[in-house]
Amino acid sequence: MSLFIGLMSGTSLDGIDAALVEIREGGAPRLVATHETPMPETLRDQLWRLCHADRLAFAELAAAEDAFCRLQAAAVEALIALSGVEREAISAIGSHGQTIEHAPRGHDGGPAYTLQLDNPSLLAELTGRPVVADFRRRDLAAGGQAAPLAPAFHEALFRAPGEWRLVLNLGGFANLTLLPPAEDERAPLGFDTGPANALLDAWHARHRGGRFDAGGAWGASGRVDEALLERLLAEPFFHLPPPRSTGRELFHLDWLQGHLQGGEAPQDVQATLAELTAASVALGVEMGRERLDAPPAAVLVPCGGGARNPDLLSRLARRLPETPLLPGEDWGWPAEWLEAGAFAWLAWRRLAGLPGNLPSVTGATGPRVLGGVYAS
Asked: Is 61:47 a contact under the CB 8 Å cutoff?
């Protein structure tokens, strides 16, 4: 039995999720303890500017990285104190870092790249534990999209005999995993379906302040603008075959603004953005089912922050009437902790010398051991 900590800060920039995970050889990972450390407004603003900057100064990048790393260390310390485990019992910390830009196809003919703000050397120094980090670029070097990486963890947790299962992560962006039954020899399929909380949060912040639309209440008060929804869904990304991944580089408020005609009620735009998430997920489910010849009645587990948004879940249910939505807790794993748990599991894979990617998901030329190890 080994204990690993996974750290995840998603594109919503709301905080650091820290998960303590127990891993036994041949057994399913088990969630032991969790802690969320909120993102201070000053750091959130710094990171937001970096994510949308055309140019940036190295000093600003370094300052944000230092502050982010120290927040990660605080999250680790809080989790250790909460769990009561001995520090030395933790084999390693898996750190995803904060994605600043993700361009798996490059820009204007340039090389593919993905940039996660992180300082694993400092994190190892501050916490006294080994750190595994830089998970994405090895897959990218092998010709993959470097995302999504969580489907391999979804397979380890949820793939089961006799049943098709779908796992949907509703973070800043949405990604979908399709898991054939365990006895089926086909590999899982996974890909990003489009924006989720990133646009919803940004539009809410612009018009109402605050970080997010609690429970989707503001979106539920609006009316879907069908003409606007049709214009948004015309975005070519929604119709690309997998492998595919995306981020703020494509879907941001300026992208949305370019589709508005002026005069739209803000709450109607919020409702339309929620419907866009549901509609693009439904398009992704249909695309995945066609590729794997999966049945329509496969259960779907929503996870991530969006799994706590009743308005969004009701829209998903209407778009996928034959697909039961099942809480992650029913399968033994709380919905909001899958991403952090994935990076604890990926850290274990790295130390064990085992591949962490799924080529069927990312498009890499083969399985690869992901991440670098930074000794304490």
From this structure: no
User: Both tokens of residue 155?
Assistant: 């397979």
319-364 per-position pLDDT tens digit: 999 999 988 777 778 888 999 999 999 999 999 999 999 999 999 9
Q: CA of 361: how far to CAs of 38, 67, 163, 220, in Å?
A: 31, 33, 20, 33
User: How far is 33 from 35, CA to CA, in rounded Å?
Assistant: 7
pTM higher than the cut 0.90: yes
Q: Using CA of residue 181, residue 185, residue 186, residue 188, what is the dihedral sign?
A: positive
Highest mean pLDDT among 80-84, 205-209, 330-334: 80-84
Supply the pLDDT for residue 102: 84
HSE-CB for 102 with a 13 A CA cutoff: 23
